[in-house]
Each structure stands twice: as C-alpha cells, then as structure tokens.
C-alpha cells in the first residue's frame, strides 16, 4: 500500500522564483525590511562589542596586575607616574640670587629705616610687655663659641660701623661684639641681628632642658623676648636691634633698602642649602673692604653642610677660606 507523492506543477512558480498569484511589490518590501534589520543587528552587535572592549580591557589588565603583585595598595602606588625632572647640565636657579641692591643709605638713616619695620618705633619701646614679665629671666645667655678670639680679630680687620649677624639666638655673640667694639673705641657700631627666633624642632627638650628657662607659650617659644631682655640687661638696646625674619626674606629686604655692612657673621642653618643661601644673599650686603665670617665650619650636620657651602662659594668667587677655631673667614685669594 504505497501513497504517491504529490507533484507540484511546474507552472506553479515562475522562473524568477516568485510564487504565482503573490504581489511582486509586497515581496520586494519584505526583502528590503529584512536586509535593513540584518544591517541594524550587525551594527548593534559591533557597537556592543566595541563598548565591551573599552570596559573589559582595562579591568582585565588591572586584574592581572593585581594578581601578579598580590598587594592592591602597592599596585595603586606603582601606577602613579614618576616625576621626571628635566636633564640639564647646570641648574641656573641654584645660582640665582639678587644681583643688584639699592644705593647705600646714609648711616644716619639706617636705624630710622629699620624702625619702619616696627611701626616707626624701636622694638624695645615699652618692653617688656606686662604679660611676659613673669617668664623672662635676667642675663639668660647661652650660645656656642660666642666669645672666641675670632670676633676681636675680624672686628680689628673691619673697623665696623654696621654689623649684620645672620643667626643670633639669645644674643651671646652679639653682646660680645658690642663689648669688643666699645673696648676698641667703636662705640657707635650698630649690630643688626637677624633670626626667626623659633629655635628648631624639639628645641624645648634639647640637651636635657638646657634652655628650659625659654618657655613655650601656645606652641611659640619666647626666644626673641628673652634675647631682648638680655640686650636690655646689658644696656645695649640702642646698638643691638633684632630683626625677627627668616634669613632669606630679611637679607633681601636689606638689599632692597640699601643697608650694607662692614662686617657680616653667618651663623644660622647648618645644612648645605641653608648656609649656601645665607652666604650668597649676605655677600651682596658686604661693603668693599668688608669682612665676612661664620660659625660651624667643622659642624658635622648634613655631612658638613656649612663647610661644603663655604668652600664652594669661595671657589666660585676666588676667595680663600681661613679656619679659625670653630669659625671660618673669607679673604681675597691673592
């Protein structure tokens, strides 16, 4: 019992493949719609894949890096790009200091000009203030090498009318220079003492309380006030004037004002860069024929920072360095 398979009449379709009896226009529109859908789908899949690459790629890379390091914190630090400094043979900024100062002031105008920094009056006016009197001690003088023979030597060499002391602390060396100048007949010598009067970090506990008498009030030591008290006790407030400024800013101010000195002592910071800046800035303020000297030539701080700065400056300015005890003196290299 076999069933015969129906046979489609050859006349049922045309040679073009269009079913007989269907609308050719409708068939064309359906084919066009199908092609548009296919193109849209391809475009959508392409954009989806591209977006996935943008997101998954960095995530996968970070994941692999984190897995290889095993330390997310160190990995985040390692991803910070390093700071690349320009490669130059010589850093000109290292040598760039004020090259020209104002014309010299008459000596008779120096004190009044300095007092302009204190509202046109002496900083000793109405000193000490009532609220500080219980904390200030009389003749509380400390220092290092502040009465060494080098002071009389350089004073005899310079016969100074104006002395600038860069780094003064409690005024021990300034008071000693005042005594020496008086003894040598230089009774009108003015000593400008530049210091920020802040000591150094950990100052209060230094040397098992060596400076315990210099108290701390609300985080600020009263070094300047104790310095001034020492000067008043010695009766030298007309000749020794504090300049409570950072050495760089203070020396530049003297340069812009036209205040020069016959004798300059540099005894502030002990690091190379501190000493280098102070020496370069102070040198501009030295009168022709004047003398510059300083302390801590053999101090080991920061691998003998002061000595390296002194020697480097002397070499570049054709000077000779003469060590004198703990001190150093510049002389022309003849």
UniProtKB/TrEMBL annotation:
Leader sequence segment: none
Compositional bias ranges of the Low complexity kind: 9-22
Residue span of region Disordered: 1-28
Membrane keyword on record: yes
UniProt keyword annotations, A-Z: Membrane, Transmembrane, Transmembrane helix
SUPFAM superfamilies: S-adenosyl-L-methionine-dependent methyltransferases
Transmembrane segments: 39-60
InterPro entries per UniProt: SAM-dependent_MTases_sf
UniProt-listed PANTHER family: S-ADENOSYL-L-METHIONINE-DEPENDENT METHYLTRANSFERASES SUPERFAMILY PROTEIN
Name of the protein in question: Uncharacterized protein
